[in-house]
Every structure is written in C-alpha cells, then in structure tokens.
Design brief:
heterodimer, A: 292 residues, mainly alpha, B: mainly alpha, 2 domains, 0% strand, globular
Chain lengths: 292, 337
C-alpha cells in the first residue's frame, strides 16, 4: 500500500493518471450511455452475485402468504409465502443470460447469412432473403409461441424460438452494409491486388459493417427481455417455481388485489428495457452523429 | 403502380404458403405427443380407441400425405379442428375476430390521436415541459410489458379508484347487441341501444389505452422529427411572413407534409399491436384471438396455435402491403417498382 502511494507521488502521471483518464473518458460519454450503462451494470452484477446476498430463499416459504410490503419483506410475499424481492432479484439469473445468448446467436447467425447473401449475390442471396421474408412475415410473438409450443415449454426452447425470430433483422442489416461497402474503391483495389474472397470479406468488408449491427443489438437486448418474459407469461417459457419475471407476473395476474406480487418483476423488466434502450440510443449518437 | 400492387398481391399467397409450410413442419416435429391431447390418459392402453383417434385426427398417415392434405385444406379455408374446443379452428377464429378487431381498432385510434397530438405539441414547444413529458410518456409505453401495465392500471383505476369496470367486453348481466359487424360498440349504436353502447365503450377503454400506449412512442417520435424538419423549410417562413396564424401554419402547412412519413409507421404499429393484443387480451379476459392463442398455447393445442399464427401473418402481410401502397399514393417522390 505504501509503495503505491510513494510511486504515485514520484511520478504524478502514472497512478492518478489512469484514474483520471478513465474518469475523463466516462465524462466524455453521453449521459444516456452512463445512465443506461449503470442500470445494465446493476442487473449484470445482480445476476452474477445474487446468490451471495443476504436475501430470503427465492424458492422457500419465507413468511406468511400474500403479505403486503413490510420491513422484513420489502416487496411483500406471494401466494406461497415466498419473498418477492428475493425472487425478483434472482430473476436476473435467467433474464440476463437468455437475452445475451439470444442476441449473440441472432447476431452471429444473422450477420453470417447476411454477409454471404450480400457478398455472393445471385441465387444464394435470393434463397437467404426469401427465408428472411418468410420469417418476418410472422408476427414475432406468434412465431415464438408456435415454435416454443412445438419444442415443448421451457427456458431453453424459448431461447431457441427467440433466436429463430431474431436473426433476420441482423441478416437484413448486414446484407445492406456489405452491399454498400462492396462497391467502395478499397475493395476494388483489393480485388485488383488478387486477394481471395475470404480475405476481401474478412479484412476489407466486414470490419466496416459492424457498427449499426452492434448498436441495434444493444437496443434489442431490452426487447428480447420483454419477449422472454412474455413467453413465460403465457406459460411457454420458464416453468414454476423458477423465479422468472414473466411467470411471476402471471402469478400476480390471477390475484390483482395483491398488486405487490407483480410489481417487483414488472419494475425489473421496465428498468432493464429502459437501461438497454438508453445505452443503445447513446451509443448510436456517439458512433453515428449523423443519425441525430 | 398497378403492376406493383399486382406483384405485391401475388407475393402474399406465396409468402403465406411458405409460412404455412414452416408452421406445418414445426407442428410435425413436436415432442409432445398430440395423441395425448385427444385421448384421455386412462384410454391410452385401449388400442381400439387409440386407432380410432389416429384415424379421426389423421395421425396414421405419412408426413407427405398430411402435408398435401393440410395445404389443400388450407386453400379451402379449413384450418383443422381444435383439440380443446373440438370445433373447427376457423369457426373459433371467426367468432373471436371481431373482439380483437374492435380492441386493435380502438388502440390504434388512441395511439394515433395521442401520438400525433403529443408529436405536434412537442415539435411546437421543442425542449419545453410538454416535449419532456411526451418523451417520458412515449418511452414508458414502449418499455412497459403490456401484461404488467395492464395489471397495474387495473389495480389502480379499477380496484382502487373505480373509474373503469372490470375485465371483459360486457358484464355477465348485459346481453350483447345483435351481431351486425360483431363490434359491440358499433352494433349497439346501430341498434340504438345507448346503455349497452356506453358500457361496451367503457369496458373497451382501459385495454385499448394499455395496448395503444405501447405504440404511442414511435408515432410521437416520428411526427415530432418530421414536423421539425418541415418547420425549417422556406415555405413555412413564407407562410409566417404572410401573417398566417401559428395554428394555421402548424396544421395547414406543416402537418400535412409531416404526416406522410407517419403512414409508414402504421404497418409497424399494427405488427406491434398484434403482439400486444395477445398479451393484453390475456390480462383483460378479452374474448378475442389473443386470449384464444394464449389458452391454446397453455394446452399445446397445435391446430389452434397454428391457425392463429397463420391469421396473424395474413393480417401482418396485408397491413404492410396497404402501408406501402398508401405511401406510394400519398408521396409522389416514392417510385414503386
């Protein structure tokens, strides 16, 4: 500890410099990124550490049934006497990974197919884009419900269904980007220089295509959280007694005199969706000032 | 123009066939055994009953045979028989469609009126309190899960304040009006039954507000930004220089042009409303397609789920088509090809 302070004093630019640089970087970001980022960070930390928090067991009886909020149960208890606050916070363990997996898989599948469609063109392009057209012809929740019902209710199947619903967005975005970048002069130069297809696509085209996809993906996180909760709400996602936000709200729906059962999970969804949309909005303004 | 409409119209059945094919093969790869949905548990050991059920529901045929039967039935408007209601799915859907249509129509009206109103006000008083309020209102609407905002508003406005009646289209004691269009509000008005009209309107309001709120945001944002763009143009300055009143400049000169891009959002809003209707109906016990879909999903009633999905996709495709055509008609700068 001592050596650190002495070192810092000897060379004023090292230790405090790092902190100052981080702070000035943060200060340079738009406030919406900071606000959204803080909310998302809170839920991320919650998802990772909530097991160690001094909370009631989310699955066990913690007090009398259907108690309104009190000092012991800040958000009350549900019909089985479980602590709503604890269940709400534990919900992050399911929602955060589902949203991450669905968005990541959607981006990877969509971007790969979109890049191939845009770069190869012709029949391959037509085939992939017809598949996209058919997928987006379904209203998202109905397609997700059909697929999940088919595969059997459960979190994993709900996630698979959501990936199938989600990839076409990124395929379209990626294809449009690739089509545009493909015509630029530096790509022509690379072709003239004798570069192979993989090199052209990987080094000369794709690096210029990511920005809009990443911004969209950030904003989509919130929508995925909403869709996942909706699927659980209609009984196709998480199954009881899993403390998943959508199915918790369903528990509350049949007893809306005990408003507190649904209040916590709803606020959790709301804050997370808001957080992601602030973050995505801010990132867009930061990376693409034209869109303002 | 006509050629464009024709080409787009041809694409609709092709896309629907694609959708139906996807839906069919999805339903065939199911892990849950559809037999268990139609044969009671204790009859499963009885080979006669199982065989009869297989024949009755076509489960003894090959996949290809079933696909051909399915598509030719679809072409005749036959969506199969629901496992749970034991009635043709198309009859179930036809019976429930008016309720959903009424809800979506009311929600769309609410969203358009409030969305355009807030958009105009927040462009007129840019960065003022109204602008900030409308931004928060819009953001909340698109971030709130409708099945939660519906519950909370039911609790606050119905249970606590008593401003709105409980769930459902009409109370159990009120006989529904004679079906003309199937929309309770319109039918009761047509037959001059004012008390029923008022009750059905009153019960329609809360679900429509909850559902419409979810798309207010996109409309407000678009009206605001396109209005701000139009207001910066020369002919607006000319109109003001001539001494036109501010309200007239706003409505007559600016809003007319600013509303063109708003048309594009209608297809999108409609898609959103279908999604939202499924969940809103579940919360408000609204006897439409949405609550039918939810109970079908809970019972793993595949013919019903797929029927709803096909109908939803058809509505979706037609709404997008109508939006594109309307956009081309209103805006001469857009060339449809």
């Amino acid at each position: 500890m001592n050596t650190v302070t002495i070192e810092a004093r000897k060379d004023g630019r090292t230790k405090p410099g790092v902190i100052r640089r981080v702070l000035s970087l943060l200060a340079g970001l738009p406030p919406s990124v900071l606000f959204g980022g803080a909310i998302v960070l809170f839920w991320l930390v919650t998802a990772l550490t909530v097991q160690f928090w001094p909370l009631h067991d989310p699955l066990a009886l913690a007090g009398r049934r259907l108690q309104p909020p009190s000092a012991d149960h800040w958000l009350g208890t549900d019909a089985l006497g479980r602590d709503v606050l604890s269940r709400t916070l534990h919900g992050a363990i399911y929602s955060m990974p589902i949203a991450t997996i669905v968005v990541l898989a959607g981006v990877v599948i969509g971007a790969a197919l979109g890049a191939i469609a845009g770069y190869v063109g012709g029949k391959v392009d037509a085939a992939i884009m017809r598949l996209v057209d058919i997928t987006v012809a379904f209203p998202p929740i109905l397609l997700a419900m059909t697929i999940t019902a088919t595969l059997g209710p459960g979190i994993v199947n709900a996630a698979i269904a959501m990936i199938i619903v989600w990839w076409p967005i990124y395929a379209r975005l990626m294809r449009a980007q690739v089509l545009e970048v493909k015509e630029r002069e530096h790509v022509e130069a690379a072709i003239a220089g004798g570069a192979g297809h993989i090199r052209i696509l990987g080094i000369h085209i794709l690096p210029l295509c990511w920005a809009p996809i990443l911004i969209n993906a950030t904003m989509d996180f919130g929508q995925v959280v909403l869709l996942a909760a909706s699927l659980s709400f209609v009984g196709l996602g998480a199954t009881p007694p899993t403390p998943e936000w959508g199915s918790m709200i369903y528990d509350g729906a049949s007893r809306f005199y005990s408003w507190w059962i649904a209040f916590g999970p709803g606020m959790a969804i709301l804050t997370l969706v808001l957080g992601f949309s602030f973050l995505g909005d801010g990132l867009r303004d930061y990376f693409d000032p034209k869109s303002q | 123009m006509l050629r464009y409409i024709f080409r787009r119209l041809i694409a609709v059945p092709l896309l629907l066939l694609g959708v139906a094919t996807v839906a069919f093969f999805l339903s065939q790869t199911t892990r849950g055994d559809p037999l268990s949905a139609v044969v009671p548990e204790r009859q499963m050991n009885n080979p006669e009953i199982v065989a009869a059920a297989k024949e009755r529901w076509g489960l003894d045929k090959t996949l290809a045979e079933r696909y051909v039967i399915y598509v030719s039935n679809l072409a005749r408007g036959d969506l199969g028989t629901s496992f749970t209601t034991r009635r043709p799915v198309s009859a179930d859907l036809a019976e429930r469609l008016p309720a959903t249509f009424e809800l979506v129509l009311a929600a769309m009206t609410f969203a358009t009126v409030v969305g355009v109103g807030l958009g105009v006000l927040s462009a007129r008083y840019q960065n003022g309190p109204i602008d900030h309020f409308s931004r928060i209102f819009a953001l909340l609407g698109s971030s709130l899960p409708v099945f939660w905002s519906g519950l909370i508003l039911l609790y606050l406005l119905t249970v606590q304040l008593g401003w709105f009646p409980g769930p459902g289209r009409l109370s159990a004691h009120t006989p529904p009006p004679p079906p003309i269009t199937g929309l309770y509000t319109l039918d009761s008005l047509l037959t001059g039954n004012i008390p029923v009209f008022l009750e059905s309107l009153h019960r329609l309001m809360l679900p429509a507000i909850v559902l419409g709120w979810s798309v207010v945001g996109v409309i407000t944002r678009l009206v605001r930004s396109s209005l701000l763009e139009v207001l910066g143009q020369d002919y607006i300055r000319t109109a003001r220089a001539k001494g036109a009143l501010e309200g007239r400049v706003m409505i007559h000169h600016a809003l007319r042009n600013a509303l063109i891009p708003t048309l594009t959002i209608i297809g999108f809003a409609f898609a959103y409303l279908i999604t939202g209707a499924v969940l809103t109906e579940a919360v408000f016990s609204w006897p439409g397609i949405g609550s039918y879909a939810v109970s079908a999903a809970r019972a793993l009633d595949y013919p019903a789920i797929i029927g709803v999905t096909l109908l939803g996709s058809l509505a979706f495709l037609l709404a997008n088509l109508a939006t594109d055509i309307a956009y081309g008609l209103v805006n001469p700068k857009v060339k449809l090809q």
